[in-house]
Amino acid sequence: MTTAPTRSTGNRLDPSIFDLPVEKMRVGYYSDAYFNHTRAALLHDARRPRVVMQVFQRKHAMVGGMDEAIAILKLCSHDWDGLTVHALHDGDRAEPWETVMTIEGDYTSFAHLETAMLGTLARRTLIATNTARVLEAANGKPIIFMPARHDHHRVQTGDGYAAFVAGATLGAPLGVTSDAQASWWGGRGVGTVPHSLIAAYGGNTVLAATKFADWAPDDLSVTVLVDFTNDSVGTALDVARALGPRLWGVRLDTSGQLVDRALWEEMGDFDPRGVNERLVRKVRAALDEDGFERVRIVASGGFTVEKIEEFERREVPVDAYGVGSSLIRGENDFTADIVMVDGRPAAKVGRSFRPSRRPELVE
Question: Is the same domain home to 224 and 234?
């Protein structure tokens, strides 16, 4: 599996990498209308208050999207040089209510950017935090980041980078499934022999896997889905025998509404549906008994932090996990408040200025 390289947490991405719609952002196209109205009213009154705005969220989280939010400020504000910005880095851990960013300067120069900045931080921090939790649950085993098919294609690039940040920060192996997801850190998408290719060869998994291996470059780890005929044990053995050393791993992906053929005679004292402990152990035992101890098992299909934790606690012999929609579910909202105006406290009740030494000056 190709995994994300390590990264330096002290470096920030160049703003140009985000390919922002700068002109639209500068005119408030992506802003909540009331921020545009606020800026217009202040300019109409020739009032340019110098403010301190602080940004925070309410959970234990891994920060994501900070470089992107800074890029929005740098490229889309009306006076970046007049702003003083302090911020945490992508990959930093944040406590509930901790100030992760402060912006000081003429409010009319950046009032129209609050919506875009907070939305970016919310989305990317959600992905980074969810991915970090999954990686920690997996105890160092590789994770394949697989939510691309569960959301709009435009979120892939930034989400993939947020997942990369989590993996690189924790030093844990992580692969993504599309080149878009890997583009900001210069990687490539990884993947298995899919059901669609097997279907294209009439449902013959061995034939599809053989043709895929004939095409695949040498540096591509060939991993094959083995649940097409609902016989994961038999198919895993057939594929291993056909591909020999070219096979990196088999992927179990039995639907949560099905019971694999290997378990038909064992039902009664456990939930036999989907990818479960007993199915994994049966596939592992069959591969080992046939001399294929080196073939890895990738488990996917409805895996969450909780399911991975349970598998790891019970030492189920999984070598890697594919995780999809659970990585993009939930919320990690951010809030921004003006807390100082022209050097005087001006926060609403309950939102006083909370200075922090952790955010660093942004150059």
Answer: yes
Residue 10 domain-assigned? no
- Report the C-alpha gap between 226 and 12 in whole angstroms: 42
Number of structural domains in the chain: 2
Residues 6+ apart with CB under 8 A from 222: 193, 209, 212, 213, 216, 243, 246, 247, 248
pLDDT digits (tens, 9 = 90+) for 34-56: 999 999 999 999 999 999 999 99
Rg (CA), the chain: 24
Spatial separation of the C-alpha atoms in residues 13 and 185, rounded to whole Å = 9
- Decide: 84 and 104 in contact? Cβ < 8 Å: yes
**Residue 4, in any domain of the structure:** no
The Cα 348–Cα 330 span in angstroms is: 28
Query: The whole model's pTM is what?
Result: 0.92
Same domain, 78 and 162: no
Classify residue 95 as exposed, middle or buried by CB count within 10 Å of its CB (0-12, 13-18, 19+): middle
User: How far apart (Å, rounded) are the C-alpha atoms in residues 210 and 198?
Assistant: 10
Q: Cα–Cα distances in Å, from 320 out to 131, 236, 280, 300, 354?
A: 14, 16, 12, 9, 42
CA distance linking residue 98 with residue 55, whole number of Å? 8
The domain of 225 spans 126-328
Q: Would residue 130 count as lying in a domain?
A: yes
Using 50, 70 and 90 to split pLDDT, how confident is the model at 214? very high
Q: What's the CATH code of the domain at 191? A: 3.20.20.70
* Strand arrangement of the beta sheet that strand 360-361 belongs to: 344-345, 334-341, 50-57, 99-106, 84-87, 360-361
Is 259 a domain residue? yes
